[in-house]
Amino acid sequence: MIALIVRRLAGLIVTLLLVSAVIFAVMDLLPGDPASVILGTSASPDTLAALQKEMGLDRPLAVRYVAWLAGVLQGDFGRSYTYGVPVAGLIAERLSVTVPLALIAILISVVLAIPLGVQAARHQNGGWDVFSGLFSHVSIAVPAFWVGLLLIILFSTTLGWLPAGGFPGWAGGVGAALMALLLPAVALALPQAGVLMRVTRSAVLEVMNEDFVRTARAKGLSEQTALWRHAVPNALIPVVTMLGLQFTFLIAGAVLVENVFNLPGLGRLAYQALSQRDVVVMQDVVLFFSALVILMNFLVDLAYLLIDPRLRAGVR
User: Fold this and answer.
1) What are the record's GO terms for cellular component (predicted)?
2) Which residues share a beta bridge with 79?
3) Residue 139: which domain range?
4) Do 31 and 110 share a structural domain?
5) What's the CA gap between 159 and 281, in Å, rounded?
């Protein structure tokens, strides 16, 4: 098992290096010059050339990539062209909003999807199954940002129960911060809950037809006990896979929802950096998103070994 983990870690490192090279090359191909964006179109050629030299933009691509990668490995992500502060601090500050938002959304998704999926599998073609299918179709079809707008109209404008946007900060109180994140978390969670419900239903249906579940029923276990004690635990592998993918999607895909609710999260930072042509911030944020996806895939692989003893037995 240790050898497997070492091999996966080596693959993770190689993949990250390849991804970082692609990200840097693609960012360099984007139209526009950061120095020109900072100085404006009226800047003189001498001033523009001096700023390009100061920013290191006159050096070859390979030299700039190696310097950037060396800085990243040392924890130095560079300084933002727009804000004039270290990018690492910007990312850390925005993660204090985006990570709790994603965690709350994942919690809502799990609470909704897994019970619905299990009950839909247990009552196949019954009322629960029809309701769960309808919920899945509607939640997947409706865009998250549109759900967010509807939630603002209902719970903020009409009822006045929750804030319509903004983030007071954790220093202003945990309760106020969580209230500000609740509506955007629901908007993010509903589409993911629809997908997770389908995966859970399919996985449980497949396991319920296995011999060990029928044997458990034959030994006198109730349908409910056989379902939750034997069928559901053995159906968790595809569910865990989907949860890992959903968490990375919620971190990286919250751009629209964060803009709808005016949340100072990582997705909004990426959007602002793109509009301001802040290449340093863009490439660092994209690298962070990519590293998160790769790391989550690695953790999901490890979770397989913990969930399914058959996989541990097969590891050499």
Assistant:
1) plasma membrane
2) 86
3) 95-314
4) no
5) 39
pLDDT tens per residue, range 203-256: 888 877 777 777 777 777 676 777 777 677 777 777 877 887 777 777 766 777
Alpha carbon distance 229, 237 (integer Å): 15
Alpha-carbon distance 97 to 87, whole Å? 16
DSSP string, the chain: -HHHHHHHHHHHHHHHHHHHHHHHHHHHHSSS-HHHHHH-TT--HHHHHHHHHHTTTTS-HHHHHHHHHHHHHTT---B-TTT-SBHHHHHHHHHHHHHHHHHHHHHHHHHHHHHHHHHHHHTTTSHHHHHHHHHHHHHHHS-HHHHHHHHIIIIIIIS--S-SS----GGG-HHHHHHHHHHHHHHHHHHHHHHHHHHHHHHHHHHHTSHHHHHHHHTT--HHHHIIIIIHHHTHHHHHHHHHHHHHHHHHS-HHHHHHTT--SHHHHHHHHHHTT-HHHHHHHHHHHHHHHHHHHHHHHHHHHHH-HHHHHH--
Which tens digit of pLDDT belongs to each residue from 166-200? 888 888 788 888 898 999 999 888 888 888 888 88
Q: Is residue 90 part of a domain?
A: no
Indicate the length of the chain as a whole number. Answer: 316
State both tokens at 83: 């804000």
Helix axis angle for 236-252 and 279-307, nearest 10°, is: 170
Q: What is the CATH number of the domain that holds 286?
A: 1.10.3720.10
Tokens representing residue 62 in the block: 């390979």
199/252 Cα distance (integer angstroms): 22
Number of domain units in the chain:
2
pTM for the complete prediction? 0.78
